[in-house]
């Protein structure tokens, strides 16, 4: 049994379509702890497989921000209204974010949300602006199975916006997404995934068999924040974790599958969770999870995430 410290990694913003697809693959492979299978072009097959299986939650870790022109006839604003009607007609929830500015309109969403756009537009015969269609084509396997079902028309201009190109605080909070990779225990992970506007990929005890060599033939547990290493409580903690590992391996040895044997794994088990959310949702997360009222181990990783984001985006300090 290994004891590991909790930690947080802030992932860099993807820039190109290929970067977005590689990010999605990385996040998805955290579930299976198969990051070692990543190659220069493995993202294509990985994405095709998860789409085929309907596991589109993984696609939520890729975010597209599109700027669109405005004109005297309403331009992109007219399309925004048509899109709202298409979602309403199909009874589909929309997770697309829209803002109207003086110089441009902005529409953003994760890849799953954009795939929903294509679906409702196809179902209601609602057009996709030609320039938006062209942008989505550049993202290859993320949209190629759906683009042929919609018709594109219109002369609105559209372009991809990198997060650094947004200047308005409101637009940044609304459209920019950031991704953190948490290493924590299962108890903390249960609190993380309560933040429903966010997107998650988590190391799966259904698929991960910790008796295998690629896990070192042992479970890993998170070092507790509340028990000093010389305390009686720490000794009891270690004893309980060792016994849980023993019974987990016993179940595997008598033929139980990983998803069956996981029933005896402890709450202190190390898990990895990738969380993607808008800046707006991260601010809400920090208000709740960095509070003194939060669980000490949640506050520990939430504070790390907050410090990393403030270093990457200093202006967030005025909003926290």
Structural notes for this entry:
- This protein is an alpha+beta fold and 320 residues long.
- It folds into two domains: 156 residues, Gyrase A, domain 2 (2-Layer Sandwich), CATH 3.30.1360.170; 114 residues, no CATH class.
- It is 43% helix and 17% strand.
- The strands form four sheets. The protein has a four-stranded antiparallel beta sheet with strand order 2-9-12-10. A four-stranded antiparallel beta sheet has the order 4-5-3-8, with helices on both faces. It has a two-stranded parallel sheet with strand order 1-11.
- Strand 4 and strand 5 form a beta hairpin.
- The protein is globular and about 70 Å long.
- 35% of the residues are buried.
User: From the 3D coordinates, which CATH architecture of the largest domain would you assign?
Assistant: 2-Layer Sandwich
Q: Indicate the mean pLDDT.
A: 96
| H and E string | EEHHEHEEHEHHEEHEHEEHHEHH
Number of helices, where a helix is a run of at least 4 consecutive DSSP H or I residues: 12
The main sheet comes to: 4 strands, antiparallel
CATH classification class of the largest domain: Alpha Beta
The tally of beta strands, per DSSP, is: 12
The CATH topology of the largest domain is given as Gyrase A, domain 2
Task: Give the N-terminus to C-terminus distance in angstroms.
Answer: 38 Å
Q: Could you give the order of strands across the largest sheet?
A: 2-9-12-10
Helix/strand/pairing category: alpha+beta
Shape: globular
Approximate strand percentage: 15-25%
Question: In percent, how helical is the residue content?
Answer: 40-55%
Instruction: List segments where confidence is low: pLDDT < 50 over at least 5 consecutive residues.
Output: none
Rg measurement, Å: 22 Å
